[in-house]
Design brief:
- Strand 1 and strand 2 form a beta hairpin.
- This protein has one domain.
- It has 4 helices and 4 strands; from the N terminus they run αββαααββ.
- The model has no long low-confidence stretch (mean pLDDT about 90).
- The termini are far apart.
- By secondary structure, the chain is an alpha+beta fold.
- Strands 1-2-4-3 form a 4-stranded antiparallel sheet.
- Bound molecules: iron/sulfur cluster (SF4).
- Iron/sulfur cluster binds next to loops.
């Protein structure tokens, strides 16, 4: 098994069987590459996929899926580290760090309000 680390999912999807999306050092979503690109559930994953040309998903513009600048990794936000930039953040996201859980065959997610849920 080889690991490949990059910030551009358009590149990563072409060289990887499975992708782990990380934000400020924490795992957000893990799935086979085709599954992750076609059915992203984490808000940060969606923000990374939105700008990919010909991505095949009807996503809103990336700047509506993520806002602001990354916080300092030495003083990360409480709860979910992505919450200061996430359009779906709630009070729960500030209080409780989401644990990674299985949401499908070999598909893992750390989010209180994934994008396929109504809340
Ligand atoms: S846990 Fe909350 S802040 Fe973090 S990605 Fe999910 S909805 Fe957004």
């Amino acid at each position: 098994m080889l690991g490949f680390i990059a910030h551009d999912l358009a590149v990563v999807k072409n060289v990887s069987d499975r992708i782990m999306v990380m934000y400020l050092g924490k795992g957000c979503e893990l799935a086979p590459s085709a599954e992750l690109i076609s059915r992203p559930a984490h808000p940060y994953t969606r923000a990374l996929i939105a700008p990919i040309p010909g991505g095949g998903l009807d996503l809103p513009p990336a700047d509506t899926l993520i806002s602001g600048e990354p916080p300092s990794p030495v003083d990360p936000p409480s709860g979910c580290r992505f919450r200061t930039r996430c359009p779906r953040a709630s009070a729960r996201c500030a209080e409780q760090e989401p644990r990674i859980r299985q949401v499908g065959d070999d598909h893992w997610l750390a989010c209180h309000h994934p994008t396929d849920s109504p809340d």
